[in-house]
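Table 4 source record.
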Amino acid sequence: MTLFEKMTERAKACPQRIVLPEGTEPRTLTAADRIIADGIADVTLIGNPDEIIKLANELKLQNIAKANMVNPADEQVIDRYAPIFYALRKSKGISMEEARLTAHNPLYLGCLMIKGGDADCMVAGAQNTTGNVLRAAFQVIKTAPGIDVVSGAFLMLLPEGLPFGTDGIIVFADCAVVPDPDASQLAQIAVSSAATARDIAGIEPRIAMLSFSTKGSARHERVDKVIEATRLAREICPGLIIDGELQADAAIVPSVAAQKAPASTLSGRANVLVFPSLEVGNIAYKLVQRLGGVQAVGPVLQGLAAPVNDLSRGAFPEDIYKTIIMTCNQAIGMK
């Protein structure tokens, strides 16, 4: 059974309430129709219900009428959710009138539904920029307890036969959000990536904090950052299996680890790789994807108090369908 087959079965067994703020976007509707048909999640679409139904009919979708529909123009809806935003932002000087205007924005409304306990998770980005999706999530949902940085991970699904990771899976982070994390942020990225490995991939994390040095083979302030991040991650989550600083080969090749880092708890069997900067992580995942024939799933946004994931504006319905499944698995794991 593939990872996605496992995630699909898990989502069906414990359906989550997912909100899709881009409810009148054709690709999103097509994916939502399939999600409903497959019994994967309880879907809420944000948008004018008449427009949603009209578009669903044009697309010949059979199941959209079974979705919950929330109209952002409905003042009764705004009456319910604007006070939540006002309470969150009044210390920043926002007025109730401004809160009501913001609550009309589908991205904010979706996040407010999660904050208000009426949804578990959200997927958006087929129409909206990553910045807009993240801004709503930061202001409403905020970060998880003990975490103040949101990062982006990719699940790298390896071709059959490669002896790396666990069950053919390695998690790469951060590859999407934080350009140059300091030691504290890097430690939090490691802790969040461990949760991603458990919640989505279903594997027990073994985390390597990567550098161009292995156990003192080089000296540099950027090496010191990784060493300090490893120490801090152990403080945040003492039960983690984590080691650093390690070069990539010492992290994933047991024979190299035996030579370069014989005392490492990972023994060259890491399945979560935490990169020292965004440029390194982003370059690495794209090279591995293209040169190694590896499927890169993500980015998964991690570190938020509830799951919100962003789409590429060039996403296909299949991409949205899979992202919804992945996000539901995050929600199940976080509970």
